[in-house]
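so i finally got all the pieces together for this one. its two components total, 638 residues if u count the protein bits. some of the lines might not be protein, just check the labels. i wanna see the whole assembly predicted at once instead of chain by chain like last time, that was a mess tbh
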Amino acid sequence: MIAKRILGLFDDFDRASAALRELREASLPGLDWNDVTIKSPIEHPDVEGVLGVRSIPVRNYTLIGALLGGSLGFLGIATAQGNFFSQLKGGKPIIPLPPDFVLTYEMLILGGVYITVLGFLICAGLPARMKSELYNVKVSEDQVGVMVKSNVHAIAEVRRIFERHDVLSVQEEVAT
Amino acid sequence: MDSTRSHSSVTQEKENDIREDIAWAQINRDVLASIERPRATYWALFALAFSMFVVGVACEIYQYNTGMGVSGMNNPNVWGLYIATFIFWIGMSHSGTLLSAILHIIHADWRKPIYRFAEAMTTFSLMTAGLFVAVHLGRLWEIYYALPYPSERWTWPNFQSPLLWDAMAIFTYLSSSILFLYVGAIPDFAICRDNATGWRKGFYDTLALGWMGTDRQWRNFRVAYMTIACFLIPLAVSVHSIVASDFAMSQQPGWHITSFPPYFVAGALYSGCAAIITLFIVLRHTFRFEEYMTLPILDKTARLTFAIAMVWTYLNLIEYASVWYGSDEVAKQTLLQRATGPYAVYWWAMNFLGSVVPFTLVFKKLRANLTAMMIVSLLLNLGMWLERWMIVTPTFGHGYYPWTWDHTFFPSWVQWGIVFGSFGWFGMLFMLFCKLVPSVSMYEVKEMVFHRKLAKLHVREA
């Protein structure tokens, strides 16, 4: 069956979340709840809550980045110090821990920040192609969009639900 | 009764950080207009900054061609205005961390209309500070000697030196600040993309990375932004602590003090805060941001500046006490030399501007006067710049050995020219940034308006 996408724009979060709630209660056949997306000008955890628990894996990247940054940083510095004997140490340790701790600390933060940003881009699906899905410039202004991807029959019902909640405009497209 | 109610509502309106009935579309329009049609003052300031920058470049070219001798630096005065100004700019960079990261974590939402330009200040201050390292080295054409790569010269950085920690910390801070600034601006780039035409459309389209404000994007954005903020706070503290270690870990009189790192961090936050006030007033006028950079927000920033000024004053006095009651007689002489010698005017000015002038911020009427606040903020930063100079120069001119006693040293016009030029370089970058990137965060102002309105509704319902 042909899959379609529908994007309904609402005036505020209350109407959008009411439409989402009804959509959820309707349990439309062929509608996968993971294919329901909110598009909004600001983040709104309460409305996102209607969608249910969705993972935020960016934290895992942070942990891995910080651990890698710190450990590789220390190893890199220690290796450099261990292999460069021409530098006079005056009887002090070849790999001095207190100063190396300072640099390890910096590398931990560096790794943490870089990999967090990388994780954010991966988890948020960025960079994204704008033409790949429905979008309306009003979303970045003052309207809240609810986008649903499903089969043609479900989409017709979704449209009716949107209309019951004073949707301002509706866009549809065939999903590729 | 009616008149009482109307009076109280007017008072409340006056004290609101922002008008809660501003339409979201209006926020977009106002901020987007700022990057397209600023006041003529913008171009005047840009021209001024460019002229200052040209003076700095001319002085640097002269120094490059003639040699470091023209800077007036000698032995023992090996660190002149360059290092003092380097520390000053590193300090200024703490403004963004304070407003963006610390206030973000504690959910102080009044920061929202003004944090973006504070973050930009962080980035450009660090870029300016970095220049001074190169200028101070003198032989720019041999800068690759300082880079850590294996070569037949057998030069290799000393990982035990705070100078190398400096390089690492500043690189981490600069790159993390740029990422923090960029990630935080992605939703605004999307707004610009949706409204721009011509070359700007393509420019913002690239920067927005295809942001569509989906719940998936917002969720990950929220966590990523908060996480970077959490990383930035200890990073900023470590950066200025390490800069303080350049001094505190040396054997120069008056520098070997345990309280130097917190003293430097407090000074950094102080100058950063004062600079925020200066640029707040400049941007408010230049970009017609009267609706967003409001007097109550200025009032809060001023009060924060006052609190930090008092912390700095306390640590400054602790520093004097450490020297005075310590057993280092030469350090004590250096302190006396500062207070009574040829630098006495600057040293007393530093203490007056840093510790006495902030008391003007106690007066509410003054905090609401833009001209007065502009003057006070400039004076505070002058005080903070003098502080850095008074740490560096008097100590070099009065070391442990009599041959280091050179109380007549004064920086040459070349040094002053380059310092002057650095303000032009910073101003130029900053003004350019404000013309290309929304200096008020549109989506965060929308959030601020939305949540405040909601909170008020809840109170009314209760």
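Residues 27 and 398 of chain B are 57 Å apart (CA to CA).
Chain B touches chain A through 56 residues (CB under 8 Å).
anyway lmk what u think
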